[in-house]
Amino acid sequence: MKFTMTPAETLAAARAPEPGDEGYDPFEAFDRSQGSEAMSDPYPIFTEVLAECPVHHGSMEHRFGIKSVSDKLAGGRPVTSVYSYSGAETVLRDGETFSASVYEESMGKVMGHTILEMDEPEHGIYRALIQHAFSRREMDRWENEIVHPVMNHYIDAFADRGRADLVSEFTFMFPIHVISMALGLPESDLPAFYRRTVELINMAAEMERGFAASQWLYDYLEPVVKERRVNPQDDLLSVLIKAELPDGKRLTDDEVIGFGRLLLPTGAETTFRSSSNMMLGLLSHPDQFEAVQNDRSLVDAVVEETLRWETPITLISRMSMSDTELEGEKVAAGAFVDISLGSANHDPSRWDNPERFDIFRDKKIGMSFGAGVHLCLGINLARMQMRVVLDKLTDRLPGLRLDPDAETPAIVGLGLRSPAALPVVWDV
Ligand code: HEM
Questions:
Q1: Does residue 395 fall inside a structural domain?
Q2: Residue 62 is part of which domain span?
Q3: What is the dihedral angle through the alpha carbons of 405, 271, 98, 256, rounded to the nearest 10 degrees?
Q4: Quick check: is 27 in a domain?
Q5: What CATH number is associated with residue 317?
Q6: Which pLDDT score, from 0 to 100, does residue 30 have?
Q7: Residue 301: what pLDDT?
Q8: What's this model's pTM, rounded to 2 decimal places?
Q9: Which phi-psi region, left, alpha or beta, contains residue 43 (left: φ > 0; alpha: ψ -120 to 50)?
Q10: Measured from the CB, is residue 299 less than 6 Å from ligand 1?
């Protein structure tokens, strides 16, 4: 596959000042907001809190002295936080007691009514419509037709240079491109699509721009969806358009657009962060990096250990629908429930030395993709992309290592975690 624009041209067009908004660059704004949460390592606090009790009253962020979104959304209702693996699993597998409708007040305001905030049976009906589009078999096709060419395109731009920032030049760039191709969008629209996606995922820092970007994406996708109804293609929007609900009805334009737009924060941002975390985990543990370079059968173990060690999303939420008990603690009806995936993944009752990055651990599934009916829909896509990232960077950048002349990168953030930059060098 040939692309007509180089990554540099795409980025330059995406960053070009807009009339009336000349001083604003969404990419710079995103970078700034990455550094604004001075949280380098929340894990010691997770360990302390979990050792006290698996379930606490009060929000997770409150424990860090940070203004809590859950507290704000709860508006005076109780907030309960779950820190253990078993507590997280209980909540996520009991959708009757712990409802996903909690997202109506947050993501729902920007994304509309999507599967993320639906409970059963509605959730199951809508999810079934799209589930097969993300099957392992489909992912094999995506891997060859989309993921390989897209990743090569970005690596081609720096492979001869011998140094790069893997975040800004690679991990940040490819996932949005992959989703735009999966939706069947033309390459000429990529810069605008990038720009609005970056504004959308920077929503927490710049609320109004996030809302405007969400509306832009809606207006942009609307005519595309109408056109695909007449002229269906081999892409995700067409899969959604063709899907039939059990009563024979089809999804409305609104529902198709809502789903397409949901893939940006759920799919692109998580993949960018998890790929960055994986490369930093390996580059800062050269012995393990060497082991996987010499034995590619370890790649899956690297992916799973990265996700356990440094999950890109440390927090998800539910709402308690009745008075109940969790790990021996009372939870009131109507309470917001913060589920700390980060803490669950470091639960010492499940993993020895959980803070250690160790690709040779016994295989045990982590909590990074959630659990129960809302288990990540993109789980096969996410794992496949991380695997291809590792294979490609290893094959194409021999002797890859952290840049000794640059500041040592670190994973930062509380709710969303990854390094802001990943300066590397290799042999050319
Ligand atoms: C490493 C990467 C990823 C991680 C860590 C991740 C994590 C998660 C988690 C924790 C949930 C459950 C949320 C909840 O129960 O409240 C979820 C749901 C979801 N994810 Fe992912 N995700 C990743 C990649 C992706 C990708 C690549 C896509 C698709 C393009 C995707 C699409 C979705 C969707 C649509 C849902 C909602 C599923 C439902 O409500 O039934 N995710 N993800």
A1: yes
A2: 7-14+41-408+415-425
A3: 150
A4: no
A5: 1.10.630.10
A6: 80
A7: 98
A8: 0.95
A9: alpha
A10: no
Between the CA of 107 and the centroid of ligand 1 the distance, in Å, is 13
In a domain, 339, yes or no: yes
Task: Quote the pLDDT of residue 34.
Answer: 67
Choose which residue among 319, 369, 373, 389 to substitute to test ligand 1 binding: the one with the highest number of ligand atoms within 8 A of its C-beta.
Answer: 369
Mutate which of 104, 376, 383, 417 for ligand 1 pocket (most atoms within 8 A of beta carbon): 376
In a domain, 31, yes or no: no
Structurally, how many domains does the chain consist of? 1
Q: Could you identify the atom of ligand 1 that is nearest to the CA of residue 383?
A: 1
Roughly what angle, to the nearest 10 degrees, separates helices 190-201 and 207-230? Answer: 140
User: Measuring CA to CA, which residue among 404, 357, 400 is closest to residue 159?
Assistant: 400
CA of 376 to the centre of ligand 1 (A): 4
List average pLDDT for each run of 10 residues in the chain, which is 428 residues long.
90 89 84 68 95 91 74 81 98 98 85 92 92 87 96 97 96 94 93 90 83 92 96 92 86 91 87 97 98 97 98 95 96 95 98 98 95 97 97 97 96 90 97
Q: Which of 131, 266, 305 to mutate to test the pocket of ligand 1 (most atoms within 8 A of CB)?
A: 266
According to the model, what pLDDT value does residue 60 have? 81
DSSP line for 309-351:
HS-SB-EEEEEE-S-EEETTEEE-TT-EEEEEHHHHHT-TTTS
Q: What is the pLDDT of residue 36?
A: 58
CB of 266 closer than 6 angstroms to any ligand 1 atom = yes
